[in-house]
Design goal:
Elements lengths: L3 E4 L3 E6 L4 E6 L4 E4 L4 E4 L4 E3 L5 E6 L3 E11 L2 E12 L5 E8 L6 E5 L10 E5 L5 E4 L6 E5 L9 E6 L7 E9 L5 E6 L2 E6 L10 E11 L1 H14 L6 H7 L11 E5 L1 E3 L16 E3 L2 H13 L5 E6 L22 H15 L1 E2 L1 E4 L3 E3 L29 E3 L2 H18 L5 E4 L19 H17 L3 E4 L12 E2 L19 E2 L2 H6 L25 H8 L11 H16 L5 E6 L6 E6 L4 E5 L4 E5 L2
Parallel strand pairs: 20-23, 23-24, 25-28, 28-29, 29-30
Antiparallel strand pairs: 1-2, 2-3, 3-4, 5-6, 5-11, 7-8, 8-9, 9-10, 10-19, 11-18, 12-13, 12-15, 13-31, 14-17, 15-16, 16-19, 17-18, 21-22, 26-27, 32-33, 33-34, 34-35
Helix pairs in contact: 3-4, 5-6
Protein backbone atom coordinates (compact mmCIF):
# COMPACT_ATOMS: atom_id res chain seq x y z
CA UNK A 1 0.00 0.00 0.00
CA UNK A 2 1.16 3.56 -0.74
CA UNK A 3 1.38 6.99 0.85
CA UNK A 4 -0.36 9.69 -1.14
CA UNK A 5 0.47 13.40 -1.27
CA UNK A 6 -1.98 16.02 -2.57
CA UNK A 7 -0.79 19.60 -2.89
CA UNK A 8 -2.82 22.79 -2.78
CA UNK A 9 -1.57 26.36 -2.42
CA UNK A 10 -3.08 26.53 1.10
CA UNK A 11 -2.22 23.08 2.39
CA UNK A 12 -0.76 19.67 1.60
CA UNK A 13 -2.53 16.43 2.51
CA UNK A 14 -0.46 13.31 3.14
CA UNK A 15 -2.63 10.18 3.33
CA UNK A 16 -1.83 6.63 4.43
CA UNK A 17 -5.15 4.72 4.32
CA UNK A 18 -3.56 1.50 5.61
CA UNK A 19 -2.41 3.21 8.80
CA UNK A 20 -5.49 5.50 8.75
CA UNK A 21 -3.02 8.36 9.12
CA UNK A 22 -3.83 11.72 7.55
CA UNK A 23 -1.53 14.73 7.90
CA UNK A 24 -2.33 18.31 6.91
CA UNK A 25 0.64 20.63 6.40
CA UNK A 26 -0.20 24.33 6.13
CA UNK A 27 1.78 26.84 4.12
CA UNK A 28 2.80 28.65 7.32
CA UNK A 29 4.51 25.53 8.67
CA UNK A 30 1.94 24.11 11.12
CA UNK A 31 1.17 20.40 10.82
CA UNK A 32 -2.13 18.86 11.96
CA UNK A 33 -2.25 15.08 12.24
CA UNK A 34 -4.91 12.41 12.63
CA UNK A 35 -3.21 9.48 14.33
CA UNK A 36 -6.02 7.50 15.96
CA UNK A 37 -7.61 4.63 14.10
CA UNK A 38 -11.30 5.05 13.25
CA UNK A 39 -13.72 2.37 14.41
CA UNK A 40 -17.18 0.89 14.15
CA UNK A 41 -19.07 0.54 17.43
CA UNK A 42 -21.62 -2.25 17.19
CA UNK A 43 -24.86 -2.40 19.14
CA UNK A 44 -23.66 -5.47 21.02
CA UNK A 45 -20.90 -3.35 22.61
CA UNK A 46 -17.96 -4.36 20.42
CA UNK A 47 -15.75 -1.53 19.14
CA UNK A 48 -13.83 -2.72 16.08
CA UNK A 49 -11.02 -0.59 14.57
CA UNK A 50 -10.84 -0.21 10.82
CA UNK A 51 -8.78 -3.13 9.42
CA UNK A 52 -6.24 -2.75 6.63
CA UNK A 53 -7.96 -1.64 3.43
CA UNK A 54 -8.73 -4.24 0.78
CA UNK A 55 -8.26 -1.56 -1.87
CA UNK A 56 -7.12 2.04 -2.09
CA UNK A 57 -6.70 4.50 -4.94
CA UNK A 58 -5.97 8.11 -5.77
CA UNK A 59 -8.50 9.98 -7.87
CA UNK A 60 -9.09 13.31 -9.58
CA UNK A 61 -12.24 14.89 -10.87
CA UNK A 62 -13.18 18.27 -12.27
CA UNK A 63 -13.15 20.06 -8.91
CA UNK A 64 -11.08 18.06 -6.44
CA UNK A 65 -8.33 15.52 -5.87
CA UNK A 66 -8.17 12.84 -3.20
CA UNK A 67 -7.78 9.28 -1.96
CA UNK A 68 -10.37 6.54 -1.68
CA UNK A 69 -10.09 3.37 0.44
CA UNK A 70 -12.28 0.29 0.95
CA UNK A 71 -12.43 -1.74 4.18
CA UNK A 72 -14.00 -5.10 5.01
CA UNK A 73 -13.61 -7.79 7.66
CA UNK A 74 -15.06 -6.06 10.73
CA UNK A 75 -14.90 -8.98 13.19
CA UNK A 76 -17.75 -11.14 11.94
CA UNK A 77 -19.86 -8.38 10.42
CA UNK A 78 -20.70 -8.34 6.72
CA UNK A 79 -20.41 -4.57 6.42
CA UNK A 80 -18.17 -2.83 3.90
CA UNK A 81 -16.85 0.69 4.44
CA UNK A 82 -15.65 3.20 1.87
CA UNK A 83 -13.78 6.35 2.90
CA UNK A 84 -12.93 9.34 0.74
CA UNK A 85 -10.63 12.23 1.57
CA UNK A 86 -10.28 15.05 -0.94
CA UNK A 87 -9.23 18.69 -1.34
CA UNK A 88 -11.43 21.09 -3.27
CA UNK A 89 -9.23 22.93 -5.73
CA UNK A 90 -10.98 26.32 -5.59
CA UNK A 91 -11.01 27.01 -1.85
CA UNK A 92 -8.78 24.36 -0.27
CA UNK A 93 -11.57 22.82 1.80
CA UNK A 94 -10.68 19.34 3.03
CA UNK A 95 -13.59 16.88 2.92
CA UNK A 96 -13.85 13.49 4.62
CA UNK A 97 -16.64 11.05 3.74
CA UNK A 98 -17.55 7.58 4.98
CA UNK A 99 -20.11 5.23 3.47
CA UNK A 100 -21.21 1.95 5.08
CA UNK A 101 -22.97 -0.79 3.15
CA UNK A 102 -24.47 -4.09 4.22
CA UNK A 103 -25.35 -3.24 7.82
CA UNK A 104 -28.42 -4.94 9.21
CA UNK A 105 -31.10 -2.82 10.92
CA UNK A 106 -29.97 -2.10 14.46
CA UNK A 107 -26.51 -3.64 13.98
CA UNK A 108 -24.43 -0.46 14.31
CA UNK A 109 -24.38 2.01 17.20
CA UNK A 110 -21.84 4.50 15.78
CA UNK A 111 -19.08 4.92 13.21
CA UNK A 112 -15.97 7.04 13.84
CA UNK A 113 -14.48 8.83 10.83
CA UNK A 114 -12.44 10.92 10.50
CA UNK A 115 -10.29 10.46 13.60
CA UNK A 116 -9.66 13.51 15.78
CA UNK A 117 -6.91 15.96 14.94
CA UNK A 118 -4.13 16.17 17.50
CA UNK A 119 -4.03 19.67 19.11
CA UNK A 120 -0.25 19.41 19.75
CA UNK A 121 0.42 21.83 22.60
CA UNK A 122 -1.13 25.09 23.72
CA UNK A 123 -4.32 26.45 22.26
CA UNK A 124 -8.02 25.86 22.69
CA UNK A 125 -11.10 24.14 21.34
CA UNK A 126 -14.24 26.00 20.25
CA UNK A 127 -17.51 24.19 20.97
CA UNK A 128 -21.01 25.31 20.10
CA UNK A 129 -22.35 24.27 23.49
CA UNK A 130 -25.35 26.57 23.79
CA UNK A 131 -24.21 30.19 23.16
CA UNK A 132 -20.61 28.98 22.91
CA UNK A 133 -17.59 27.82 24.90
CA UNK A 134 -13.85 28.15 24.52
CA UNK A 135 -12.05 25.20 26.17
CA UNK A 136 -8.33 25.88 26.81
CA UNK A 137 -6.18 22.82 26.18
CA UNK A 138 -5.40 20.96 29.36
CA UNK A 139 -8.72 21.84 31.04
CA UNK A 140 -9.56 18.16 31.46
CA UNK A 141 -13.17 18.30 30.33
CA UNK A 142 -14.69 15.11 28.93
CA UNK A 143 -17.92 15.09 26.89
CA UNK A 144 -19.00 11.80 25.33
CA UNK A 145 -21.76 11.01 22.83
CA UNK A 146 -22.76 14.66 22.52
CA UNK A 147 -25.54 15.31 20.04
CA UNK A 148 -25.44 17.76 17.19
CA UNK A 149 -28.61 19.90 17.14
CA UNK A 150 -29.08 19.84 20.90
CA UNK A 151 -27.78 21.96 23.80
CA UNK A 152 -24.46 20.17 23.41
CA UNK A 153 -24.12 21.69 19.92
CA UNK A 154 -26.58 24.36 18.78
CA UNK A 155 -24.60 24.63 15.54
CA UNK A 156 -23.07 21.69 13.64
CA UNK A 157 -19.41 22.59 13.88
CA UNK A 158 -16.43 22.76 16.21
CA UNK A 159 -12.95 24.18 15.85
CA UNK A 160 -9.49 24.32 17.32
CA UNK A 161 -6.74 26.93 17.50
CA UNK A 162 -3.09 26.05 17.96
CA UNK A 163 -0.90 28.25 20.13
CA UNK A 164 -3.63 30.81 20.67
CA UNK A 165 -5.07 32.24 23.87
CA UNK A 166 -8.40 33.97 24.52
CA UNK A 167 -6.49 37.23 24.01
CA UNK A 168 -4.42 36.53 20.89
CA UNK A 169 -4.71 34.52 17.68
CA UNK A 170 -2.86 31.25 17.26
CA UNK A 171 -0.55 30.21 14.48
CA UNK A 172 -3.34 28.23 12.79
CA UNK A 173 -6.69 26.62 13.33
CA UNK A 174 -9.65 25.06 11.64
CA UNK A 175 -13.43 24.89 11.54
CA UNK A 176 -14.78 21.33 11.33
CA UNK A 177 -18.28 21.37 9.85
CA UNK A 178 -20.76 18.51 9.80
CA UNK A 179 -21.86 18.60 6.17
CA UNK A 180 -24.42 15.87 7.00
CA UNK A 181 -25.36 16.87 10.57
CA UNK A 182 -28.65 15.15 11.32
CA UNK A 183 -27.31 11.82 12.58
CA UNK A 184 -24.10 13.15 14.10
CA UNK A 185 -22.41 13.12 17.50
CA UNK A 186 -19.04 14.09 18.94
CA UNK A 187 -16.74 12.99 21.75
CA UNK A 188 -14.38 15.45 23.45
CA UNK A 189 -11.56 14.17 25.60
CA UNK A 190 -7.80 14.78 25.91
CA UNK A 191 -8.35 18.00 23.91
CA UNK A 192 -9.44 15.96 20.89
CA UNK A 193 -12.82 16.15 19.17
CA UNK A 194 -14.01 12.96 17.48
CA UNK A 195 -16.90 13.10 14.98
CA UNK A 196 -19.26 10.13 15.28
CA UNK A 197 -22.08 8.97 13.05
CA UNK A 198 -25.17 7.08 14.19
CA UNK A 199 -27.73 5.27 12.12
CA UNK A 200 -30.82 6.72 10.48
CA UNK A 201 -33.94 4.58 10.92
CA UNK A 202 -31.71 1.70 11.96
CA UNK A 203 -29.05 1.66 9.24
CA UNK A 204 -26.29 3.91 7.96
CA UNK A 205 -28.27 4.51 4.74
CA UNK A 206 -26.16 7.32 3.21
CA UNK A 207 -22.62 8.75 3.09
CA UNK A 208 -21.58 11.00 6.01
CA UNK A 209 -19.36 14.01 5.38
CA UNK A 210 -17.14 16.39 7.37
CA UNK A 211 -15.68 19.57 5.91
CA UNK A 212 -12.54 21.17 7.37
CA UNK A 213 -11.51 24.77 6.70
CA UNK A 214 -7.96 25.50 7.84
CA UNK A 215 -6.80 29.06 8.43
CA UNK A 216 -3.51 30.73 9.35
CA UNK A 217 -3.56 33.36 12.15
CA UNK A 218 -6.74 31.81 13.47
CA UNK A 219 -8.99 32.54 16.46
CA UNK A 220 -12.58 31.78 17.44
CA UNK A 221 -13.83 34.78 15.45
CA UNK A 222 -12.26 33.34 12.31
CA UNK A 223 -13.82 29.94 13.04
CA UNK A 224 -17.26 31.53 13.44
CA UNK A 225 -16.78 33.45 10.18
CA UNK A 226 -15.86 30.20 8.40
CA UNK A 227 -19.14 28.65 9.46
CA UNK A 228 -21.19 31.74 8.61
CA UNK A 229 -19.71 31.80 5.10
CA UNK A 230 -20.43 28.06 4.75
CA UNK A 231 -24.10 28.60 5.63
CA UNK A 232 -24.37 31.62 3.35
CA UNK A 233 -22.83 29.73 0.41
CA UNK A 234 -25.57 27.12 0.75
CA UNK A 235 -28.45 29.59 0.89
CA UNK A 236 -29.30 28.83 4.52
CA UNK A 237 -28.44 32.21 6.05
CA UNK A 238 -31.93 33.68 6.46
CA UNK A 239 -31.67 37.10 8.06
CA UNK A 240 -34.25 38.93 10.15
CA UNK A 241 -34.63 41.35 7.27
CA UNK A 242 -35.66 38.46 5.03
CA UNK A 243 -37.97 37.01 7.69
CA UNK A 244 -39.67 40.38 8.11
CA UNK A 245 -40.12 40.68 4.34
CA UNK A 246 -41.99 37.37 4.38
CA UNK A 247 -43.99 38.23 7.51
CA UNK A 248 -44.29 42.00 8.10
CA UNK A 249 -45.50 41.39 11.68
CA UNK A 250 -41.89 40.54 12.55
CA UNK A 251 -40.93 44.23 12.22
CA UNK A 252 -42.97 44.96 15.36
CA UNK A 253 -40.74 42.64 17.39
CA UNK A 254 -37.50 44.56 16.94
CA UNK A 255 -36.54 46.42 20.10
CA UNK A 256 -39.27 44.82 22.19
CA UNK A 257 -38.62 43.49 25.68
CA UNK A 258 -40.21 40.12 26.47
CA UNK A 259 -42.92 39.87 29.14
CA UNK A 260 -43.31 36.27 30.25
CA UNK A 261 -46.28 35.52 32.48
CA UNK A 262 -48.72 32.71 33.20
CA UNK A 263 -52.42 32.04 33.48
CA UNK A 264 -53.20 28.61 34.96
CA UNK A 265 -51.34 25.70 36.54
CA UNK A 266 -52.53 22.15 37.10
CA UNK A 267 -49.94 19.62 38.25
CA UNK A 268 -50.89 15.99 37.80
CA UNK A 269 -50.39 13.69 40.81
CA UNK A 270 -48.19 11.59 38.49
CA UNK A 271 -45.92 14.53 37.62
CA UNK A 272 -42.46 14.85 39.15
CA UNK A 273 -43.48 18.40 40.16
CA UNK A 274 -46.53 17.37 42.18
CA UNK A 275 -46.45 18.84 45.69
CA UNK A 276 -47.67 16.21 48.13
CA UNK A 277 -47.12 18.40 51.21
CA UNK A 278 -49.25 21.31 49.97
CA UNK A 279 -51.78 20.20 47.32
CA UNK A 280 -53.04 23.79 46.98
CA UNK A 281 -49.85 24.56 45.07
CA UNK A 282 -50.83 22.07 42.35
CA UNK A 283 -53.87 24.03 41.09
CA UNK A 284 -54.08 27.81 40.78
CA UNK A 285 -54.62 30.50 38.19
CA UNK A 286 -54.37 34.22 37.45
CA UNK A 287 -57.25 35.45 35.33
CA UNK A 288 -56.81 36.80 31.83
CA UNK A 289 -58.30 40.09 33.05
CA UNK A 290 -55.81 40.38 35.93
CA UNK A 291 -52.91 39.98 33.53
CA UNK A 292 -54.51 42.50 31.18
CA UNK A 293 -54.67 45.04 34.00
CA UNK A 294 -50.99 44.45 34.79
CA UNK A 295 -50.15 45.21 31.17
CA UNK A 296 -52.11 48.46 31.35
CA UNK A 297 -50.10 49.39 34.45
CA UNK A 298 -46.84 48.78 32.57
CA UNK A 299 -48.08 51.03 29.80
CA UNK A 300 -48.81 53.79 32.32
CA UNK A 301 -45.28 53.42 33.72
CA UNK A 302 -43.78 54.12 30.29
CA UNK A 303 -43.25 50.75 28.62
CA UNK A 304 -44.31 51.72 25.13
CA UNK A 305 -43.85 48.38 23.37
CA UNK A 306 -43.36 44.74 24.33
CA UNK A 307 -43.67 41.13 23.25
CA UNK A 308 -45.85 39.09 25.62
CA UNK A 309 -45.61 35.36 26.18
CA UNK A 310 -48.45 33.80 28.18
CA UNK A 311 -48.19 30.25 29.50
CA UNK A 312 -51.07 28.13 30.73
CA UNK A 313 -53.95 29.54 28.71
CA UNK A 314 -55.37 26.07 27.97
CA UNK A 315 -58.13 24.03 29.57
CA UNK A 316 -55.92 22.46 32.28
CA UNK A 317 -53.21 25.14 32.27
CA UNK A 318 -49.52 25.01 31.47
CA UNK A 319 -48.02 21.83 29.91
CA UNK A 320 -51.30 19.90 29.92
CA UNK A 321 -53.40 18.06 27.32
CA UNK A 322 -51.22 19.04 24.35
CA UNK A 323 -51.60 19.07 21.42
CA UNK A 324 -55.30 19.57 22.22
CA UNK A 325 -55.51 22.12 25.07
CA UNK A 326 -58.79 23.79 24.05
CA UNK A 327 -60.94 25.43 25.30
CA UNK A 328 -59.09 28.29 27.05
CA UNK A 329 -59.13 27.97 30.83
CA UNK A 330 -62.71 28.56 31.91
CA UNK A 331 -62.08 29.75 35.49
CA UNK A 332 -59.49 32.25 34.23
CA UNK A 333 -62.00 33.78 31.85
CA UNK A 334 -62.39 31.31 29.00
CA UNK A 335 -62.55 32.36 25.37
CA UNK A 336 -63.85 35.84 26.11
CA UNK A 337 -61.19 36.49 28.74
CA UNK A 338 -58.43 35.40 26.41
CA UNK A 339 -59.85 37.64 23.68
CA UNK A 340 -59.87 40.59 26.09
CA UNK A 341 -56.23 39.93 26.99
CA UNK A 342 -55.30 39.95 23.32
CA UNK A 343 -57.27 43.15 22.76
CA UNK A 344 -55.53 44.78 25.75
CA UNK A 345 -52.17 43.94 24.18
CA UNK A 346 -53.27 45.63 21.00
CA UNK A 347 -54.45 48.74 22.87
CA UNK A 348 -51.08 48.95 24.67
CA UNK A 349 -49.09 48.46 21.49
CA UNK A 350 -47.85 45.10 22.73
CA UNK A 351 -47.61 41.84 20.77
CA UNK A 352 -49.96 39.12 22.07
CA UNK A 353 -48.00 35.87 22.21
CA UNK A 354 -48.74 32.45 23.68
CA UNK A 355 -46.97 29.26 24.71
CA UNK A 356 -47.90 26.14 22.73
CA UNK A 357 -46.59 22.57 22.51
CA UNK A 358 -46.51 19.91 19.76
CA UNK A 359 -44.00 17.35 21.00
CA UNK A 360 -45.22 16.24 24.42
CA UNK A 361 -48.29 14.08 23.70
CA UNK A 362 -50.35 13.79 26.89
CA UNK A 363 -52.08 10.53 27.66
CA UNK A 364 -55.16 12.26 29.11
CA UNK A 365 -55.55 14.55 26.10
CA UNK A 366 -58.71 14.09 24.02
CA UNK A 367 -56.76 13.09 20.90
CA UNK A 368 -54.11 10.83 22.41
CA UNK A 369 -53.38 7.65 20.46
CA UNK A 370 -50.33 5.40 20.46
CA UNK A 371 -50.72 5.21 16.71
CA UNK A 372 -49.72 8.89 16.35
CA UNK A 373 -46.87 8.81 18.85
CA UNK A 374 -43.20 8.42 18.01
CA UNK A 375 -42.45 4.74 17.51
CA UNK A 376 -39.07 3.30 18.44
CA UNK A 377 -37.12 0.61 16.58
CA UNK A 378 -38.61 -2.10 18.83
CA UNK A 379 -42.18 -0.85 18.38
CA UNK A 380 -42.43 0.83 21.77
CA UNK A 381 -43.19 4.51 22.41
CA UNK A 382 -41.46 7.19 24.51
CA UNK A 383 -42.77 7.76 28.02
CA UNK A 384 -42.23 10.70 30.36
CA UNK A 385 -44.05 12.00 33.42
CA UNK A 386 -41.77 14.85 34.49
CA UNK A 387 -43.84 17.83 33.37
CA UNK A 388 -46.98 19.27 34.93
CA UNK A 389 -49.42 17.31 32.79
CA UNK A 390 -48.01 13.97 33.91
CA UNK A 391 -47.76 10.89 31.66
CA UNK A 392 -47.09 11.59 28.03
CA UNK A 393 -45.37 10.24 24.96
CA UNK A 394 -43.96 12.26 22.05
CA UNK A 395 -46.14 13.24 19.12
CA UNK A 396 -44.56 12.23 15.81
CA UNK A 397 -43.31 15.33 14.01
CA UNK A 398 -45.10 14.22 10.84
CA UNK A 399 -48.40 14.46 12.72
CA UNK A 400 -47.55 17.69 14.54
CA UNK A 401 -47.93 19.68 11.34
CA UNK A 402 -51.63 18.84 11.06
CA UNK A 403 -52.32 19.64 14.71
CA UNK A 404 -50.72 23.10 14.33
CA UNK A 405 -52.83 23.79 11.26
CA UNK A 406 -55.98 22.68 13.11
CA UNK A 407 -55.33 24.66 16.30
CA UNK A 408 -54.59 27.99 14.65
CA UNK A 409 -57.70 27.64 12.54
CA UNK A 410 -59.52 27.18 15.86
CA UNK A 411 -58.02 30.38 17.29
CA UNK A 412 -59.27 32.17 14.19
CA UNK A 413 -62.75 30.63 14.53
CA UNK A 414 -62.92 31.71 18.18
CA UNK A 415 -61.78 35.23 17.35
CA UNK A 416 -58.74 35.07 19.66
CA UNK A 417 -56.16 37.49 18.16
CA UNK A 418 -52.95 35.45 18.52
CA UNK A 419 -50.09 37.51 17.08
CA UNK A 420 -47.12 35.37 18.17
CA UNK A 421 -46.62 31.78 19.23
CA UNK A 422 -43.88 29.87 20.98
CA UNK A 423 -43.78 26.21 19.91
CA UNK A 424 -42.05 24.71 22.93
CA UNK A 425 -38.85 22.60 22.73
CA UNK A 426 -38.71 22.44 18.92
CA UNK A 427 -35.43 24.37 18.90
CA UNK A 428 -33.67 22.66 21.79
CA UNK A 429 -34.43 18.94 22.09
CA UNK A 430 -32.98 16.37 19.71
CA UNK A 431 -34.66 15.58 16.43
CA UNK A 432 -36.95 12.56 16.83
CA UNK A 433 -36.81 9.44 14.70
CA UNK A 434 -40.07 7.59 14.14
CA UNK A 435 -40.18 3.98 12.89
CA UNK A 436 -43.97 3.93 12.40
CA UNK A 437 -45.00 2.39 9.09
CA UNK A 438 -47.81 4.94 8.80
CA UNK A 439 -45.74 8.08 9.47
CA UNK A 440 -41.99 7.29 9.48
CA UNK A 441 -39.62 10.20 10.00
CA UNK A 442 -35.84 10.51 9.95
CA UNK A 443 -34.15 13.12 12.12
CA UNK A 444 -33.73 15.30 9.04
CA UNK A 445 -37.42 14.96 8.25
CA UNK A 446 -38.21 15.81 11.87
CA UNK A 447 -36.36 19.11 11.43
CA UNK A 448 -38.29 19.75 8.22
CA UNK A 449 -41.57 19.02 10.00
CA UNK A 450 -40.73 21.34 12.91
CA UNK A 451 -39.89 24.11 10.45
CA UNK A 452 -43.19 23.48 8.66
CA UNK A 453 -45.01 23.99 11.95
CA UNK A 454 -43.28 27.36 12.39
CA UNK A 455 -43.94 28.23 8.73
CA UNK A 456 -47.67 27.67 9.24
CA UNK A 457 -47.54 30.44 11.83
CA UNK A 458 -45.55 32.69 9.49
CA UNK A 459 -48.06 32.18 6.70
CA UNK A 460 -50.81 33.32 9.08
CA UNK A 461 -48.88 36.49 9.96
CA UNK A 462 -48.00 35.10 13.40
CA UNK A 463 -44.46 35.64 14.77
CA UNK A 464 -42.87 32.18 15.26
CA UNK A 465 -40.61 31.40 18.21
CA UNK A 466 -39.26 28.43 20.11
CA UNK A 467 -37.10 27.62 23.12
CA UNK A 468 -33.45 28.07 22.18
CA UNK A 469 -31.59 28.07 18.83
CA UNK A 470 -30.78 25.03 16.72
CA UNK A 471 -29.17 25.58 13.35
CA UNK A 472 -31.59 23.25 11.56
CA UNK A 473 -34.68 25.11 12.87
CA UNK A 474 -33.44 28.70 12.66
CA UNK A 475 -34.39 29.42 9.02
CA UNK A 476 -38.06 29.33 10.11
CA UNK A 477 -37.60 30.80 13.62
CA UNK A 478 -37.56 34.49 14.54
CA UNK A 479 -37.34 34.59 18.34
CA UNK A 480 -36.10 32.25 21.06
CA UNK A 481 -36.83 32.12 24.79
CA UNK A 482 -33.12 32.45 25.58
CA UNK A 483 -29.76 31.09 24.43
CA UNK A 484 -27.35 31.45 27.35
CA UNK A 485 -24.24 29.48 28.30
CA UNK A 486 -23.54 25.89 29.27
CA UNK A 487 -22.78 25.93 32.99
CA UNK A 488 -21.86 23.28 35.53
CA UNK A 489 -25.47 23.18 36.73
CA UNK A 490 -27.95 24.76 34.36
CA UNK A 491 -30.62 24.84 37.04
CA UNK A 492 -28.44 26.68 39.56
CA UNK A 493 -28.38 30.45 39.95
CA UNK A 494 -24.76 30.28 41.11
CA UNK A 495 -23.11 27.90 38.64
CA UNK A 496 -19.69 28.06 37.04
CA UNK A 497 -19.22 28.25 33.29
CA UNK A 498 -18.02 25.22 31.35
CA UNK A 499 -14.87 26.61 29.78
CA UNK A 500 -14.80 30.31 28.89
CA UNK A 501 -18.15 31.62 27.62
CA UNK A 502 -18.04 33.23 24.18
CA UNK A 503 -20.92 34.54 22.01
CA UNK A 504 -20.27 32.02 19.23
CA UNK A 505 -23.96 31.81 18.29
CA UNK A 506 -24.22 35.58 17.97
CA UNK A 507 -21.00 35.73 15.97
CA UNK A 508 -22.69 33.52 13.40
CA UNK A 509 -26.37 34.49 13.59
CA UNK A 510 -26.88 37.84 15.36
CA UNK A 511 -28.78 39.33 12.42
CA UNK A 512 -30.85 36.16 11.93
CA UNK A 513 -32.62 35.77 15.30
CA UNK A 514 -33.85 37.80 18.26
CA UNK A 515 -32.19 36.39 21.38
CA UNK A 516 -33.38 37.91 24.69
CA UNK A 517 -31.62 37.64 28.05
CA UNK A 518 -33.30 37.25 31.44
CA UNK A 519 -31.99 39.68 34.05
CA UNK A 520 -32.05 43.29 35.25
CA UNK A 521 -29.13 45.48 36.39
CA UNK A 522 -27.66 44.29 39.67
CA UNK A 523 -28.88 40.72 39.25
CA UNK A 524 -26.27 37.98 38.81
CA UNK A 525 -26.45 34.34 37.77
CA UNK A 526 -29.57 32.62 36.55
CA UNK A 527 -30.44 29.78 34.24
CA UNK A 528 -27.40 29.34 31.98
CA UNK A 529 -25.72 32.46 33.38
CA UNK A 530 -22.46 32.03 35.33
CA UNK A 531 -23.00 33.01 38.96
CA UNK A 532 -20.70 36.06 38.81
CA UNK A 533 -22.19 37.40 35.58
CA UNK A 534 -25.05 39.77 34.86
CA UNK A 535 -27.38 38.57 32.10
CA UNK A 536 -28.23 42.22 31.52
CA UNK A 537 -24.58 43.01 30.73
CA UNK A 538 -24.47 40.00 28.39
CA UNK A 539 -27.52 41.41 26.60
CA UNK A 540 -25.81 44.78 26.17
CA UNK A 541 -22.58 43.13 24.94
CA UNK A 542 -24.48 41.04 22.40
CA UNK A 543 -26.77 43.80 21.16
CA UNK A 544 -29.77 41.76 22.32
CA UNK A 545 -33.02 42.65 24.13
CA UNK A 546 -34.00 41.70 27.68
CA UNK A 547 -37.03 40.49 29.61
CA UNK A 548 -39.30 42.87 31.51
CA UNK A 549 -41.21 41.58 34.56
CA UNK A 550 -44.96 42.08 34.33
CA UNK A 551 -44.69 43.83 37.71
CA UNK A 552 -41.71 46.00 36.70
CA UNK A 553 -40.98 49.31 38.39
CA UNK A 554 -40.29 52.52 36.49
CA UNK A 555 -36.60 52.02 37.28
CA UNK A 556 -36.74 48.50 35.82
CA UNK A 557 -38.46 49.83 32.72
CA UNK A 558 -35.80 52.52 32.16
CA UNK A 559 -33.06 49.85 32.20
CA UNK A 560 -35.08 47.57 29.93
CA UNK A 561 -35.59 50.37 27.42
CA UNK A 562 -31.85 51.15 27.35
CA UNK A 563 -30.95 47.57 26.41
CA UNK A 564 -33.79 47.21 23.93
CA UNK A 565 -33.03 50.50 22.19
CA UNK A 566 -29.49 49.29 21.55
CA UNK A 567 -30.81 45.92 20.36
CA UNK A 568 -33.22 47.62 17.97
CA UNK A 569 -30.44 49.71 16.41
CA UNK A 570 -28.38 46.53 15.91
CA UNK A 571 -31.19 44.26 14.69
CA UNK A 572 -29.80 43.97 11.17
CA UNK A 573 -26.11 44.21 12.05
CA UNK A 574 -23.88 41.15 12.08
CA UNK A 575 -21.54 40.70 15.04
CA UNK A 576 -18.16 40.66 13.32
CA UNK A 577 -15.82 40.40 16.30
CA UNK A 578 -15.70 39.59 20.01
CA UNK A 579 -12.61 40.30 22.12
CA UNK A 580 -11.30 39.92 25.64
CA UNK A 581 -9.76 43.28 26.54
CA UNK A 582 -6.48 44.06 28.34
CA UNK A 583 -5.75 40.43 29.18
CA UNK A 584 -8.94 39.94 31.21
CA UNK A 585 -11.82 37.60 30.46
CA UNK A 586 -14.03 39.91 32.57
CA UNK A 587 -13.59 42.86 30.19
CA UNK A 588 -15.03 42.23 26.76
CA UNK A 589 -15.78 44.04 23.51
CA UNK A 590 -18.01 43.36 20.54
CA UNK A 591 -17.90 45.01 17.13
CA UNK A 592 -20.81 45.02 14.68
CA UNK A 593 -21.01 45.37 10.93
CA UNK A 594 -22.47 48.89 11.19
CA UNK A 595 -19.39 50.04 13.11
CA UNK A 596 -20.92 49.96 16.61
CA UNK A 597 -18.45 48.98 19.35
CA UNK A 598 -19.65 47.85 22.79
CA UNK A 599 -17.36 47.49 25.82
CA UNK A 600 -18.42 45.84 29.08
CA UNK A 601 -16.84 45.06 32.44
CA UNK A 602 -18.46 42.09 34.18
CA UNK A 603 -16.78 42.84 37.50
CA UNK A 604 -17.97 46.45 37.61
CA UNK A 605 -21.27 45.79 35.75
CA UNK A 606 -20.56 48.72 33.46
CA UNK A 607 -20.81 49.22 29.72
CA UNK A 608 -20.27 51.76 26.96
CA UNK A 609 -21.83 51.81 23.50
CA UNK A 610 -20.06 53.70 20.71
CA UNK A 611 -22.28 54.05 17.69
CA UNK A 612 -20.69 54.42 14.28
Amino acid sequence: MAEYRINHEKLTLTADPEACLYTVSLSGGDVWRMAERPFVRFSDGRQVPFPAPVKEEAFKNGTSEGVRAFYAGFDGSEIAVETTVRIERVNGDLLFAVRVEGDRPGEIAAVSFPAPLEPDGDGYTVLSRMQGALIPHGSGYVFENQQIHERSSYLPFFGQVRGGTPFAPGSSGYAAIYDTPFDALYDFKSDRVSPLWRTSLGTMRYARRMLFRFREECDYNVIAACYRSYVKERGRLVTLREKAARNPAVERLFGCPVIHAGIAVHISPESDYYNKEDPSKNDYYTSFDTQAERLRELKKKGLDKAYTHFDGWGNHGYDNLHPSPFPPHEAAGGVEGMKRLGETCRECGYIFGIHDQYRDFYHDGPDYSDSEAVTYFDGSHPYCSVWYGGPHSFLCSARAVEFVRRNYAEFERLGIPVEASYLDVFSVVEMDECFSKEHPATREQCAENRRRCLDILTDRGIIPSSEEILDCILPSQVLCHHAPFFTTNLGSSNADPVGIPIPLLNLVYHDCAVIPWIGLPGEHGGWGIPGKDSAYIHAILNGDPVYCPITATEENIAAVKTACASAERLTHAAMVRHEFVDGSIRRQRTTFSDGTVIDVDFDADTFSIREA
